[in-house]
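Components:
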Amino acid sequence: MTNQYPIPVVVNGAAGKMGREVIKAVAGASDMTLLGAIDHNPEVLDKDAGEIAGCGTLEVPITNQFEPMLAMAAQERQLGVMVDFTHPSTVYDSVRSAIAYGVRPVVGTTGMSTQQIQELAEFAEKASTGCLIIPNFSIGMVLLQQAAVQASKYFDHVEIIELHHNQKADAPSGTAVQTAKLLAEMGKTFNPPLVKEEEKLAGARGSVAEEGIRIHSVRLPGLIAHQEVIFGAAGQIYTLRHDTSDRACYMPGVLLAIRQVTQLKSLVYGLEKIL
Ligand SMILES: NC(=O)c1ccc[n+]([C@@H]2O[C@H](COP(=O)([O-])OP(=O)(O)OC[C@H]3O[C@@H](n4cnc5c(N)ncnc54)[C@H](O)[C@@H]3O)[C@@H](O)[C@H]2O)c1
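Structure:
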């Protein structure tokens, strides 16, 4: 269904690494308009969002006024959408506020607990408001997860390694947790122990996420976002790996999510559900 008016988009976390990419992508999408750009970093206050993003002047100054911006988005003829790439400590409250204003959240920020996501799902359902929470917007990661689910039918042993830049606030990554969850949904327990293990150094074996699946987190400058799912069986190793080399890879997924969320009346989790 083609909308008569462009979708008004507010970007929360506009001056961040992901926020800047979103500003550029929204500015280049003919069916969207950048209504607002929010960031609490005082160094970018009142600066033009387009100039901060490196795509030329957009005449949208960055503000730290979150609720007034939501109120403005709620007044638009076409349903407003809030894209959030901020921080795990504030994302829950921001998404709840957006839903209360009838503004559709598209959430890329990771690190919310299962309970928080469940509460937001109930809140969105009651408000009949669409909300998308997407722990990874890249199509390559969705394909990796689908391949991992297939492989899990034939392998009983699997471990996940996720590698990210060292400014990432949460560990393990939301994507790695989601991958473990998808494998656990296959209804079996992985990695039956063959010996009694003793960790000489706490955390050496990573942490157990779901159904015996261990996740190991690496943080280093020079990395962006990477994930390996390693299956093992007698005489063979099957490795799936996804590497992000540029944050632009997330933007087709973000634009798709902005379009789709205006059609939803409840919370949906995961890019694979809207492809
Ligand atoms: N879903 C995905 O595909 C995907 C991809 C990459 C990153 N992420 C996640 O997105 C989030 C942001 O990542 P980033 O690399 O852009 O981080 P970043 O630190 O570069 O940017 C975050 C921005 O948000 C701002 N901010 C933080 N809290 C705020 C608040 N309460 N109100 C307004 N502004 C606030 C900061 O000032 C900063 O400019 C992280 O949780 C990261 O894990 C998700």
